[in-house]
Amino acid sequence: MLHAFTRSPVHPFTLSPIVILLSASIVLAATVDDLYKPVAEKEVARDYVAAVGVYQRVADDYPDDARAPKAMVRVGDLYLLLKKPDEAIKSYQLVADSYTDVPEVGQALVGIAKVYRDQGNGEKLESTASFRKFFDIRRRIASASGSSHN
Questions:
Q1: Whether pLDDT at 63 is above 70
Q2: Tell me: the pLDDT tens digits for 83-131?
Q3: 16-57 residue pLDDT tens
Q4: Is the overall model pTM greater than 0.85, yes or no?
Q5: Residue 63 neighbours by CB distance under 10 Å
Q6: Given pLDDT bands bounded at 50, 70 and 90, which one contains residue 82?
Q7: Rounded to 5, what percent of the chain is helix, strand, coil?
Q8: Are 141 and 104 in contact (CB under 8 A)?
Q9: In CA terms, which of 13, 29, 109, 111 is 20 to 30 Å from 90?
Q10: Crossing angle for the helix pair 103-118 and 67-81, nearest 10 degrees?
Q11: Cα–Cα distances in Å, from 22 out to 15, 28, 29, 46?
């Protein structure tokens, strides 16, 4: 076989790194189930940084999977455990902005509220779109159930 550009002979093993790289990428492609298997162990072992990485990968690689918003809420929860409230808010906000009719939106909005409450920053909470969205969702649920709790 001749090299396409130099027209010199190509050793058969010259192409093997490409084959190995392609094979490795196929092996590294995981399903959501494959990703979720070890994450509980990471949390039990309090390896929260590794767990965040796994949940983040689920959300990034499988945004349409039903577990993606759950994964992002969990990322926010773990960031709180890691004492990174700003990162937690970003994660929760991503859920609130990216999804609509899933229970995790409410969980994410409550997470944002908890962070601001813990920071003693009620003014910031009330000025956010998340705060208004939370009460809008609450009103929709109440009106759908025939309740008058506003």
A1: yes
A2: 999 999 999 999 988 987 888 988 998 898 889 888 887 676 666 665 6
A3: 444 333 333 333 457 888 888 888 889 999 999 999 999 999
A4: no
A5: 13
A6: very high
A7: 75, 0, 25
A8: no
A9: 29
A10: 10
A11: 11, 10, 11, 34
129 vs 88: CA distance, rounded Å: 16
- Say how far apart CA 67 and CA 78 lie, in whole Å: 16
Domain 12-145 has CATH 1.25.40.10: yes
Q: What b/e readout covers 113-136, taking b as 16+ CB neighbours within 10 angstroms?
A: bbbbeeeeeeeebeebebbebbee
Q: Which two tokens stand for residue 101?
A: 């009719």
Q: Give the dihedral of Cα atoms 42, 46, 47, 53; nearest 10 deg.
A: 70
Residue 117, H or E segment:
helix 103-118
DSSP calls for 118-140: HTT-HHHHHHSHHHHHHHHHHHH
Q: 117: Cβ–Cβ under 8 A, 6 or more apart, which residues?
A: 125
